[in-house]
UniProtKB/TrEMBL annotation:
One of its GO terms (molecular function) is propionyl-CoA carboxylase activity. Pfam families: Carboxyl_trans (PF01039). The keyword Transferase applies. Keywords: Transferase. Residues 1-227 form the CoA carboxyltransferase N-terminal domain. The keyword Cytoplasm does not apply. This is Acetyl-CoA carboxylase, carboxyltransferase component. Residues 231-467 form the CoA carboxyltransferase C-terminal domain. It comes from Enterocloster lavalensis. InterPro entries: AccD/PCCB (IPR051047), AcCoA_carboxyl_beta (IPR034733), ClpP/crotonase-like_dom_sf (IPR029045), COA_CT_C (IPR011763), COA_CT_N (IPR011762). PANTHER family: PROPIONYL-COA CARBOXYLASE BETA CHAIN, PROPIONYL-COA CARBOXYLASE BETA CHAIN, MITOCHONDRIAL.
Length: 483
């Protein structure tokens, strides 16, 4: 039985929107097909409640599927109601939020339902990059509805009973639900990377409200600015110890320590999320090699780029660029992940991330917090591919590769002949680091703009984005890129 028995489509909308702000549209619409004795079926609102309201005073459009009506299945009129909401949202430049509990296509309506589903896909595609689209899964989201959720910008999923799948777990050869529940929130967030946020119903609705409050309403009118209550020049001495846990660093940098992480469970070595700087929403991408909770290290990762991490970051940067959200990058990377599975995907994924950074025309600020080595650094928002301002912490290393490894290659014969090879390696490593891999060496060549103390990061980044506020940057005329 669907969990809509506990929370109806209408009550979810009431919990999501500002009190008494919801206005229903199409309340009297029902199924119009007469095949298969459908005239005897009760289909109030044809299984989906649609309308508009506000979140913290900002206009949003909502549809909420009701599994108590033919399983929440999508028929012709059900689909038309959703398409109508999209049409209104596009005219008004307001986000669309879908609260999903759908058994899929309504079999009794066959091609009419199929055509309606296709129209929803088309509307979502036209809205992509114009208005934010959010989906939240509370029951079943199977087959074609899973594709619809994937088209949206952010997907939330209830973590106990919600199901998201194209093919059900038991339909996969050699698999069954108890072996690997591929439809679960845990799988879809950590393995598939389709789900951005998980939690119980109340927390999901609260997270959606928070997300809507910090995002622009559309790609032209930015209502995401707020008044900053934090000290713009706040010095954070503890930042120097956060080079590994950049999620923690971002929360320290942000106004009032606000940080909303996106796809937290999908390849945690790459961090994506939103912070606020001087009241402005900023999208953040960061390499993470450590995770700390309550002062204790709970996880450790290689400081390298993986295929999953690159795809995660590329999608996030593309969203930010579409909605004119500035991008801040914290860099700590030594290369690419080396494994057989990754090797099949890493070149394409790294190419997508490189393209996303280079193609984005929003203000871009990069801070090198530890290591920035090789072409993996170039990919992570370097000045070479278009970063507007690049800072480095004092002990950052910037270069082609780890100095010790470079020395072993360059001085292989000398090291082999030396009486004290360790001393020679140490001597040459220090020399190479000073000449080719230090923040000072990079600054002298113009590859970074300034060397800053870690504790000053907040004030320096805020000042950089203030300077870049009116940035305008043209791109070659073309229909779209192909990467």
């Amino acid at each position: 039985m669907s969990n809509s028995a506990q929370a109806s489509a209408s009550s979810r909308i009431a919990a999501l929107l500002d009190e008494n702000s919801f206005v229903e549209v199409g309340a009297y619409i029902t199924a119009r097909t007469t095949d298969f004795n459908m005239t005897e079926q009760e289909t109030p609102a044809d299984g989906v409640v649609t309308g508009y309201g506000t979140i913290e005073g900002c206009l949003v459009y909502v549809y909420s599927q009701d599994a108590s009506v033919l399983g929440g299945s999508m028929g012709e009129m059900h689909a038309k109601k959703i398409s109508n909401i999209y049409s209104m949202a596009m005219k008004m430049g307001a986000p669309v939020i879908g609260l999903i509990d759908c058994a899929g296509l309504r079999l009794q309506e066959a091609t009419d339902a199929l055509a309606g589903f296709g129209q929803v896909y088309l509307n979502q595609t036209m809205a992509s990059g114009v208005i934010p689209q959010i989906s939240a899964i509370f029951g079943t989201c199977g087959g074609g509805m899973a594709v619809s959720a994937a088209i949206t910008d952010f997907t939330f999923m209830e973590d106990k009973s919600a199901k998201l799948f194209v093919n059900a777990p038991n339909a996969l050869k050699g698999n069954y639900t108890s072996k690997c529940d591929t439809s679960s929130a845990a799988f879809q967030s950590a393995e598939a990377g389709l789900v951005d946020f998980t939690g119980d119903e109340a927390s999901i609705l609260g997270q959606i409200r928070t997300l809507v409050s910090i995002l622009p309403s559309n790609n032209e009118d930015d209502m995401s600015y707020g008044e900053c209550q934090d000290d713009l020049n706040r010095i954070s001495g503890e930042l120097a110890g956060c080079a590994g846990d950049t999620a923690l660093a971002l929360s320290i940098i942000s106004d009032n320590n606000f940080f909303m992480e996106v796809k937290k469970n999908y390849d945690p070595s790459m961090v994506t999320g939103f912070i606020r700087l001087n009241g402005t929403t900023v999208g953040c991408v960061a390499n993470r090699s450590e995770v700390y909770e309550n002062g204790e290290k709970t996880a450790e990762y290689e400081p390298v780029l993986s295929a999953k991490g690159c795809d995660k970051a590329a999608d996030f940067i593309n969203f930010c660029d579409s909605f004119n959200i500035p991008v801040l990058s914290l860099v700590n990377v030594k290369g690419y992940k080396a494994s057989k599975c990754t090797e099949k995907l890493i070149a394409k994924a790294a190419g997508r991330l490189t393209y996303a950074y280079a193609n984005a025309s929003v203000p871009k600020v990069t801070v090198i917090v530890k290591d920035a080595l090789g072409s993996a650094y170039l990919t992570m928002g370097s000045k070479s591919i278009g970063a507007d301002v690049v800072y480095a912490w004092e002990n950052a290393a910037i270069g082609m590769m780890d100095p010790a490894e470079a020395v072993k290659i360059m001085y292989a014969k000398e090291i082999e002949a030396a009486e004290d090879s360790v001393a020679l390696i140490n001597e040459k490593t220090a020399q190479y680091a000073a000449l080719q891999s230090s923040a000072l060496a990079a600054a002298r060549r113009g590859y970074i703009d300034d060397i800053i103390k870690a504790g000053e990061t907040r004030q320096r980044v805020i000042a950089a984005f203030e300077m870049l506020f009116t940035k305008r940057e043209d791109r070659p005329s073309k229909k779209h890129g192909t990467v």
